[in-house]
UniProtKB/TrEMBL annotation:
Top-rank taxon, per record: Bacteria
Transmembrane annotation, as ranges: none
UniProt organism field: Synechococcus elongatus (strain ATCC 33912 / PCC 7942 / FACHB-805)
Residues in PPC domain copies: 1-84
InterPro entries in UniProt: PPC_dom
Name of the protein in question: PPC domain-containing protein
Pfam families (UniProt xref): PCC (PF03479)
Amino acid sequence: MEIAVLRLRPGQDLKQALWDWTQEHQPSAACLLSAVGSLDAVCLRLAGGDRQLQRQEPHEILSLSGTLCLDGLHLHLAIADATG
């Protein structure tokens, strides 16, 4: 088993950074176990459909997990804004 730690800088796109890492390292399978930090803006596809949630204000990452492979990313994200 190999462990990788990624650090994103302010303004970096989270999903794009994870995809770039996947393309560079080409794992047959990888899992994302945890994340800490915040996002300046979010665009999420809501479960069970094609609807999206888009917000242009800061959000704290509460939980982030998923799988990363060359077929694509499968991510689950829980966030909170200033009101919870």
